[in-house]
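Can anyone check this?
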Amino acid sequence: MHSKQNGFTLIELIAVLVILGVLAAVALPKFVSLSSESRIAKMNAAIGAVNSANGLIHAKWLAAGSPTAGSIAYDGGTLPVLSGTTTGLGVASGYPNACAIATVAGLDSSYGTSLSPSTCTNGTATTVTIYDTTKGASGNCSFTFADSGNGATPVTSALTSSGC
């Protein structure tokens, strides 16, 4: 009578572990690269959302007759039209200011913001750095939106992909 083998031999288990180790060594760098590429794509999508929101608010402001008071409605709420030295988020000279752009663009909590100066004051140029919070500090995997404070079209920088 033949005895039945119940299980694997030590050699078979070692061979399987070696094969899995080699596969992991080959696959891990590719996975890490894909993670970075996905964060870069996410941030490029945020740049597109910011630019679209900026254009949408400006178009709504123009369609409303370029008001100097009141508010501009958008899909997520309303923004006050700022005048004088009003502070806070709003529409300044027809464009959303740096304080308002992340909200208007619909960016969620996976994006952080850092303002310079720390308060938006109508008539004063303000820059917001928008970054991927999974990468920590605002200089990593980020871009900026700078309003001029004087009615010129705000400028969105290219993505700083270091640290993505």
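Reply from J.R.: I decoded it. Residues 10-63 form the longest helix (54 residues).
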